[in-house]
Amino acid sequence: MIKARATLTAAGVAAVALLAAGCGSEAPSEGAIQATGSATVEPITSYMANRYDFDVNVEAIGSNDGFEKFCNGEADINNASISIPGAGDEVDFQKQCADNNVEYIELPIGLDAITIVKHRDNDWATDLSIQQIHDIWSVDSPVTRWSDIDPSWPDEEIALYGRPQGSGTLDVFKQLVLDGDEIREDYQATDDIQELSEWVADDVNALSFMGIGNYLETDEEARDVIDNVRVDGIEPTAEETQSGNYPLARPLFIYVNEESANREDVDEFVTTYLDNAEAVMPRLFFYQLPEDEYGRVKERYAERTTGPDDQWHI
C-alpha cells in the first residue's frame, strides 16, 4: 500500500481515500442529483453521468467551495481533489459537516499527479526541483525572473498562472510545495482548465500547475504548445504516480451525503460510478488506484462507513 508522507511522494500516489457521505436536514431530495466541487474531478463525474444516463447537475467551483455547500447540506456529492479538511486546516469542514448533521462517505476514485506546465518553447526549465518551485511561488521569495533560478537562463520575468482560492489543487500544491509558507498573490488564476492551458500556450515565460488529467484533456490546439516539467527528475507518469515516486501525486475523491445515498437515484449513480471507476480513469487521462483498493472502496460504500479515513489524509 502506498504510504503518504509530508511532501506526498507516496501520499499522493496511494492517496486512496475512503467513503465520505454527507447528510443533513437540507440535503436535496428531489430532481437531479446535485454534484459540486473540484474542477479536476468534474470531467470524471460528468462522464459517469452522461455515459450511464443519470440526471446529474455538475458544477466546478473548486473542492473547498464545494465542501462549503456540501457541508451545509446543499449537495448530494462533492467532487474533491483533496481529502476533506479538518482541525488545523484553514477551514475545518469536518466540523462544519458535523455541526450541520451532515454524515458523509469518503470514496477515493483514482489518482492524479499535479503537473507543472510550461510553454513548449521554454527549453531551459525542463526539470525543476521542489525547492526551485517553492522559491518561484513563495510570497517572500526574491525569485521573479528565470535568471534568478539559474544565471544561464533568460533574464525574463516568470509569468505565473494557476488555480484560485477554493481550489483543492491549489491547496495540495501549497501543502506539497510551499510546506507552510504563503503563496504569492501576483499570479493569474482561473477554475476554467481550458482557459488556464491557453494562458500558458500564449506565453513563452509561463509557468502553471494543474492535474495531469486536465493537462492531457486540454484541447489539442493548446496542448500542442504546452509541455510538462519534470519534478526532481521525475515525470508525472502513471507508473511514477502509482509507485509513489512522483512528488506531487494525490488521490481524487467523491464525497457522498449519507442521507442522499438513501435515494434510489443517488445510490444507483454512486454504485455505477464505483463499478466503472477503474476502467474509466485511463479514458479521462487520470490514473487508477492500486487494483485491490477498488474492492475496499465498494465495500466501504455498501456498508455506509462514514467519516474520514486517516490512511488517505496527508
Please state the overall shape, judged from the principal axes of the Cα atoms. globular
Broad structural category: alpha/beta
Compute the separation of the termini in Å: 15 Å
Largest sheet descriptor = 10 strands, mixed
CATH classification, class level of the largest domain: Alpha Beta
Q: How many E strands?
A: 10
What is the gyration radius calculated from CA atoms?
Answer: 19 Å
Any idea of the CATH topology of the largest domain?
D-Maltodextrin-Binding Protein, domain 2
CATH superfamily of the largest domain: Periplasmic binding protein-like II
Please report which band the strand proportion falls in: under 5%, 5-15%, 15-25%, 25-35%, 35-45% or over 45%: 15-25%
Share of residues in helices: 25-40%
Treating each run of at least 4 consecutive H or I residues as one helix, how many helices? 13
Number of domains: 2
**Average of the residue pLDDT scores:** 89
* Uncertain runs: 1-29
**CATH architectural grouping of the largest domain:** 3-Layer(aba) Sandwich
H-E order: HEHEHEHEEHHEHEHEHHEHEHH
